[in-house]
Amino acid sequence: MKKRVGYISNEQKNTLMELMDKYPNLINGRFSSTFTKKDGQNQWHEIASILNAIPGAKKDWIHWRKRWGKKSDYKSHNKESNGDIIISRKSQHSSRRPPTP
């Protein structure tokens, strides 16, 4: 059985979104010769220490990374803040009728 690590506070949620704006390589999750897995882990360690200093949940870097991965609203917030337009596949194909004039 998994041990509960607690609920995150609104301050932690907001801080996580702000921190992810500072770490764009973590958002897309792709590694390269200039951004390695070890670099990503080090950045998550930094994020975890900042978030754990805020009142709320206390998690290790892996649980903070999982929390980020589960919340698509965080990801869409970051993509919108970077100027991208987000259109889901469902919304693109939700209506087969031609638009009304």
Automatic annotation (TrEMBL):
<keyword id="KW-0805">Transcription regulation</keyword>
<dbReference type="Pfam" id="PF13873">
    <property type="entry name" value="Myb_DNA-bind_5"/>
</dbReference>
<feature type="compositionally biased region" description="Basic residues">
    <location>
        <begin position="90"/>
        <end position="101"/>
    </location>
</feature>
<comment type="function">
    <text>Involved in transvection phenomena (= synapsis-dependent gene expression), where the synaptic pairing of chromosomes carrying genes with which zeste interacts influences the expression of these genes. Zeste binds to DNA and stimulates transcription from a nearby promoter.</text>
</comment>
<dbReference type="InterPro" id="IPR028002">
    <property type="entry name" value="Myb_DNA-bind_5"/>
</dbReference>
<keyword id="KW-0804">Transcription</keyword>
<feature type="region of interest" description="Disordered">
    <location>
        <begin position="70"/>
        <end position="101"/>
    </location>
</feature>
<feature type="compositionally biased region" description="Basic and acidic residues">
    <location>
        <begin position="70"/>
        <end position="82"/>
    </location>
</feature>
<comment type="subunit">
    <text>Self-associates forming complexes of several hundred monomers.</text>
</comment>
<protein>
    <recommendedName>
        <fullName>Regulatory protein zeste</fullName>
    </recommendedName>
</protein>
<feature type="domain" description="Myb/SANT-like DNA-binding">
    <location>
        <begin position="7"/>
        <end position="69"/>
    </location>
</feature>
